[in-house]
């Protein structure tokens, strides 16, 4: 095959001839015992982590706005590095969940958009058993599947645990997007490369808070330095009942949740 005139990205994309062998299904979360929470701190490298308090989140969407503006994600594009899901559980046990535009504008309607705009439903308030909001973002896993499947090394993990993407190396093959069990990766509509949350790495390495943390008026999002046992967020992770999403995949996620309901998926 002649490569005359073809870009490096095109050549590498054509040269990669493998595909993912499995499809990762949806799954529930896992509560961590105090011993497991301590292991998450003591058995890892120097690294950052995140704590989300679902009991404090009000679904206002300010975190999503701040993230889009800070990280140059087109404001009206239906993709975002972080998002908030609304869960409505009815008395019959049915679970309804949606996240219109990633909750960029909050939840201004009682109508639930499940899956797509064509599937809309308004739940009778008298039938609601409970309702709550769950922020989601990249879990900066200790054993990230996305790093393992990238054929060109464009996705890599830093010494402090954050998974980054080198846009110059990314060939847009999509393997990392498919491999992530948390659905946090997407193709940037402008650069046409893989994209995701990186805890605002350009900010936290300068002593600043991530944009979403800074914008949250309710303290629902907090950054932790697991190296520092005196870090108040680390202390919360060690002493409170925290949970992680989809622990059975073995990725060792480092986004910890307070008050996570059993219906979250």
Please give the domain count.
1
**What is the residue-averaged pLDDT?**
87
CA gyration radius, whole angstroms: 19 Å
Unreliable stretches:
1-6, 15-27
Distance between the termini: 45 Å
**DSSP strand (E) fraction?**
15-25%
Keywords for this entry:
265 residues; alpha+beta; Alpha-Beta Plaits; five-stranded mixed beta sheet; globular; disordered N terminus
What can you tell me about this protein's structure?
With 265 residues, this protein is α+β, with helices and mostly antiparallel strands. The protein has a single domain, classed as Alpha-Beta Plaits. The protein has 8 helices and 14 strands. The protein has a 5-stranded mixed sheet, with helices on one face. The chain has a 3-stranded antiparallel sheet with strand order 4-3-7, with no helix packed on it. β5 and β6 form a beta hairpin. α2 packs antiparallel against α8. The N terminus is likely disordered.
Write the layout of secondary structure elements.
Blueprint lengths: L7 H8 L13 E3 L2 H9 L5 E6 L8 H9 L12 E8 L4 E4 L12 E3 L6 E3 L5 E9 L8 H5 L5 E3 L5 E3 L9 H5 L6 E2 L6 E2 L5 H4 L6 H5 L5 E5 L6 H8 L2 E4 L9 E4 L7
Helix pairs in contact: 2-8
């Amino acid at each position: 095959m002649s490569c005359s005139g073809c870009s490096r990205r095109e050549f590498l994309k054509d040269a990669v001839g493998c595909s993912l062998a499995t499809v990762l299904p949806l799954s529930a979360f896992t509560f961590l015992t105090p011993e497991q929470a301590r292991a998450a701190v003591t058995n890892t490298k120097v690294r950052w982590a995140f704590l989300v308090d679902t009991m404090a989140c009000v679904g206002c969407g300010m975190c999503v706005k701040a993230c889009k503006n800070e990280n140059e994600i087109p404001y009206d594009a239906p993709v975002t590095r972080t998002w908030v899901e609304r869960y409505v559980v009815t008395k019959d046990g049915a679970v309804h969940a949606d996240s219109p535009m990633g909750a960029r504008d909050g939840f201004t309607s009682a109508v639930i958009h499940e899956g797509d705009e064509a599937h809309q439903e308004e739940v009778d308030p008298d039938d609601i058993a409970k309702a709550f909001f769950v922020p989601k973002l990249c879990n900066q896993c200790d054993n990230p599947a996305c790093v393992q499947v990238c054929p060109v090394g464009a996705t890599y993990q830093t010494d402090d645990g954050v998974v980054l993407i080198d846009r110059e190396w990314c060939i847009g093959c999509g393997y990392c997007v498919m491999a992530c069990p948390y659905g946090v990766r997407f193709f940037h509509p402008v650069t046409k490369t893989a994209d995701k949350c990186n805890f605002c790495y350009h900010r936290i390495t300068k002593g600043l808070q991530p944009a979403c943390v800074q914008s949250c008026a309710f303290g629902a999002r907090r950054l932790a330095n697991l190296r520092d046992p005196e870090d108040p967020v680390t202390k919360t992770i060690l002493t409170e009942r925290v949970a992680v999403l989809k622990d059975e995949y073995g990725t060792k996620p480092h986004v910890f949740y307070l008050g996570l309901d059993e219906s979250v998926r």
